[in-house]
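User: I'm writing a short methods note and want a consistent example. For non-specific serine/threonine protein kinase, I'll paste the sequence; you return only the structure tokens, no commentary, since I'll be parsing the reply automatically.
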Amino acid sequence: RLDSSNLEKIYREVQLMKLLNHPHIIKLYQVMETKDMLYIVTEFAKNGEMFDYLTSNGHLSENEARKKFWQILSAVEYCHDHHIVHRDLKTENLLLDGNMDIKLADFGFGNFYKSG
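Assistant:
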């Protein structure tokens, strides 16, 4: 059972993800809540975490790194344009879809911000 602090964090993550629709951000499809459980259904990232990919393969080519970096920047810019900060960018939170494109995931530390 989750304590109120962790439950609040999960609800905020769901609230953030509902607002995001970008090709390089993992999509939230459905949230189901029962008395004891909360189920979050998201897009499937077939090729897993960037962390695991780099651990197995060692590195990216310069062209591939450039492409992935652009995808990350595009996703982060989209978040910021919608007054959302991720606050936990790391290779474990960068997923790879079936085309080896980046999908930014895990908005557990994310939050809204006011510009100005």
